[in-house]
Amino acid sequence: MRKITLRLLTKIPTKYVTTGLILIITLFIYGIVGSHFIMGLNLIDSIYYSVITMATVGYGDYTPHTGIQKIFATTLALAGVALLAYVFNIILTSFQEKMSIYSKGARKMKAISDMDDYYILCGYGRVGKVVFDELTQRNQNVIVIEKDKELCDSIEESDTVVVINEDATKDELITKLAGKKCNSAIITTGDDVSNLFIVLTIRETNPDAWIVSRASKLENISRLEKAGADKIVSPEIIGGKDLYFESTRPHLLKITVRHTADEIFDEFKLIVKHGCTLENIEYHIPGIETPLTREIKTMSYEDGKNYRNYLNTHDDKKQAVDNLYKAVNNVHSHLISGPDRATFDKLVKELEQIEKIIGVNLSNEEIAELTRKEL
Predict the structure, then answer these.
(1) How far apart are CA 196 and CA 16, in angstroms?
(2) Whether domain 249-372 has CATH 2.10.10.70
(3) For site-directed labelling of 94, which of 53, 223, 239, 297 has its Cα 20 to 30 A away?
């Protein structure tokens, strides 16, 4: 307790300490000058008289007699009382504020220790807020570390949410939290240098931690990987892809079909024939709205042929693909980009001749409803 008290007292804001010292020196000079010229005392006695009067001790060995002396002694004593009250008020107020901070910190650490596991979210900006909302919607325990006090104050704390108003780059803080109870550390600050430092610190503390980091610049992705990040996400890249897909929305086709793995290549040949690109494949698990998605992004006939040859020469891989198609009852969707709607119409007509088309541009909700009937 003694050490904590000393630390609190030494952290009184500098501006208050400076103001207090200036006022004390000013009043002390006033007392010495007045004692010498008004009370008629020598320098040593003037210092002595100023101290005992400012401190309201008043031993009575020097007594003011004239009116001007009494006025001087009164102003010196009142100013001394007011100044002492001001200084003590600063000390007590600062002490109480620091004690409150330490008390809040202790409560936060207690709440964290009571959690069975948790996610660490470093940074509560635009990206961090989206991540936070996703975590809280799933009732996950979340520790938010954010250096902006206003942002911290905007977050409502609860049994599952602890907010720490600190800089996540501080070794001591992140080292305490990134232990075995940490499910994952999600780093979403907009500064790649800070993200890199946090990743390094967490990886040194917990070699098994799952670390997901934001990268603002493409050239920093490899650096974050080398530092120990398991997954790097660039909102700028994702945003660019979204902009592209939105710009091509009139020329995107989502076609939901049912066929076995043996018909993959025949289907792909038709897509390539019409100058279209197979963007991805979505596998629809019966009754579940969110599909499994594989990104393809190819319009090369050679890619399709190489994939077919690969499956034909690797029985275990071919078996894995067959099992995937069986798991979804052969129902899957293709997201295809193409030059125009007329091309899509021709493509759909030709695809109908070789496979069963369940629907075109169906939503995931509609597909889930259709597959749910097969359960």
Answers:
(1) 38
(2) no
(3) 53
For the chain, the three-class secondary structure string (H helix, E strand, C coil) is: CHHHHHHHHCCCCHHHHHHHHHHHHHHHHHHHHHHHHCCCCCHHHHHHHHHHHHCCCCCCCCCCCCHHHHHHHHHHHHHHHHHHHHHHHHHHHHHHHHHHHHHHHHHHHHHHHHCCCEEEEECCCHHHHHHHHHHHHCCCCEEEECCCHHHHHCCCCCCCEEEECCCCCCHHHHHHHCCCCEEEEEECCCCHHHHHHHHHHHHHHCCCCEEEEECCCHHHHHHHHHHCCCEEECHHHHHHHHHHHHHCHHHEEEEEEECCHHHHHHHHHHHHHCCCEEEEEEECCCCCCCCEEEEEEECCHHHHHHHHHHHHHCHHHHHHHHHHHHHCCCEEEEEEECCCHHHHHHHHHHHHCCCEEEEECCCHHHHHHHHHCCC
Per the CATH hierarchy, to which homologous superfamily does domain 116-238 belong? NAD(P)-binding Rossmann-like Domain (3.40.50.720)
For the stretch 112-125, pLDDT in tens is 878 888 999 999 99
Per-residue model confidence as pLDDT tens digits over 290-325: 899 988 888 888 988 898 899 899 999 999 999 999
CATH class of 2-110: mainly alpha
Q: Is 43 left (phi over 0), alpha (psi -120 to 50) or beta?
A: alpha
Start-to-end CA distance of the chain, whole Å, equals 65
- Taking only the tens place, the pLDDT of each residue in 217-276 is 888 989 999 999 999 988 877 777 666 666 655 678 999 999 998 898 999 999 999 989
CA-only gyration radius of the chain, Å: 36
List Cα–Cα distances, 184 to 13, 108, 202, 203, in angstroms.
37, 19, 10, 11
Place of tokens 């693909």: 321
- Residues near 16 by Cβ (< 8 Å), separated by ≥ 6? 90, 94
> What residue segments make up the domains of the chain, in order of their start?
2-110, 116-238, 249-372
pTM of the predicted protein model: 0.51
**Angle at alpha carbon of residue 126, lines to 123 and 127, rounded to 5°:** 65
